[in-house]
Amino acid sequence: MNKAKPTILVVNDDGITAPGIKVLLEAMSEIGRVVVVAPDSPQSGMGHAITIGKPLRLDKVDLYEGVEMYRCSGTPVDCVKLAVNKIFKGQKPDLCVSGINHGLNNSINVLYSGTMSAAVEGAIEGIPSIGFSLDDYTLQADFSHCVKYVKELALQVLANGLPQATLLNVNFPNTPHIKGIKVCRQAAAKWAEEFDERIDPHKRPYYWLTGVFQLNDGGEDTDVWALEHNYVSVVPVQFDMTAHHAIPYLNNWKFNV
Amino acid sequence: MNKAKPTILVVNDDGITAPGIKVLLEAMSEIGRVVVVAPDSPQSGMGHAITIGKPLRLDKVDLYEGVEMYRCSGTPVDCVKLAVNKIFKGQKPDLCVSGINHGLNNSINVLYSGTMSAAVEGAIEGIPSIGFSLDDYTLQADFSHCVKYVKELALQVLANGLPQATLLNVNFPNTPHIKGIKVCRQAAAKWAEEFDERIDPHKRPYYWLTGVFQLNDGGEDTDVWALEHNYVSVVPVQFDMTAHHAIPYLNNWKFNV
């Protein structure tokens, strides 16, 4: 923490009017100077998408008294890029927090989640970053039991920093009876898609993406295990996707070309 | 390879009419039975986005003689999910190839790329998967020097398989004078955003995302180095994003909560 009052960028993927971001910006306002940049509409499942084919809008809005807020027409990752470039203008914030997401982003969901991708983008920019998510998809989600953990984790990251090119993925169980914080690895899992097939009024088929979470990992060191046992899960995430362990294997291949 | 004639799923992010996917499906038709599922419009930069808030369309089309093809209204990842569930119906293809992308997807671009995210989704589904990209963004790109490498890599993956939960990210330099194939790690880099700010006819500002590729890694074992020296770069990619090396560090933190 390089100054008395840190600057904190708050982003999310559920959109600027989501209850989860209000909880997060209020918690962060107790720690530092807060700047909020969030999508003008829900952007769940946008992953690491960026907007290339059309221009972006960025407008200052006045939703909560005394909070500097901007709504952005783009994706969660666009929000971070615009914040760094057009609002902070190269003066990086001390912390980037994303969420609190309405719905878990544990395990494989780190890839699909706009919340986590915004935090990943913060980390790529060299900003210590954390994504927060709660196991409740509804707009009526109760985030009150999360607040003290959110503040503690933000303070720890500000005080200690994070290993280079890493960030934190923090998920909360939907219970006030939390046993503590567990540092975990991402559980191996996938979504088994089902697709709800329907017929439109013009007799043409269309499909709704649905799915069942398929856990392939019983490890007690995973985020899924921690959440099932009422712990807050903290997974350190990296954005270097190289499978280093596979390099020697591939180097043994003989290419006939 | 579990049968005489393998089944190969071909996807991309530049859309079903892109020249790059035609080159790829033609190369794959020499190896096996090909099924193409591609977005009905360009989806560059969509990363691992999925479509949650609206339904999807999937229509059979007849673009090239004798090739089973479908256009999808969703993202590249949606294409893979729909292919696995509605076309293959659980009978997994033997290989999933994505591209050939018009433009490089080396280094950090693996995160933003719809081409690579489609291949990642294939790997999550347990299908041996490869993403292919060429260092030429134009629709006039010449892919002819890529074809023999595309076929060789597909055959090697079909014959040897890949380590569990990994896939390949293959990038081609834009030259016919290729020195060979190099297995690499992803170079550390980021996009330094600039944003082109303009004023619309109603006097309101808008922003075009632009950027400069900022390399922070001179390693001769990276994909950037290989491509600059006219090698085909092959990076093994994993989708477990856990920063395993950071877990002991975080376990030393004392939480005051």
UniProtKB/TrEMBL annotation, chains A, B:
It is an enzyme of class 3 (hydrolase). GO terms for cellular component: cytoplasm. Its main location: cytoplasm. Its cofactor is a divalent metal cation; Mg(2+). SUPFAM superfamilies: SurE-like. Gene3D superfamilies: Survival protein SurE-like phosphatase/nucleotidase (3.40.1210.10). A divalent metal cation binds at residues 13-14, 44, 101. Binds 1 divalent metal cation per subunit. Pfam families: SurE. It is found in: Cytoplasm. It catalyses: a ribonucleoside 5'-phosphate + H2O = a ribonucleoside + phosphate. Residues 8-192 form the Survival protein SurE-like phosphatase/nucleotidase domain. GO terms for molecular function: 3'-nucleotidase activity; 5'-nucleotidase activity; exopolyphosphatase activity; metal ion binding; nucleotide binding. Its EC number is 3.1.3.5. It comes from the Bacteria. Keywords: Cytoplasm, Hydrolase, Metal-binding, Nucleotide-binding. Nucleotidase that shows phosphatase activity on nucleoside 5'-monophosphates. Belongs to the SurE nucleotidase family. This is 5'-nucleotidase SurE.
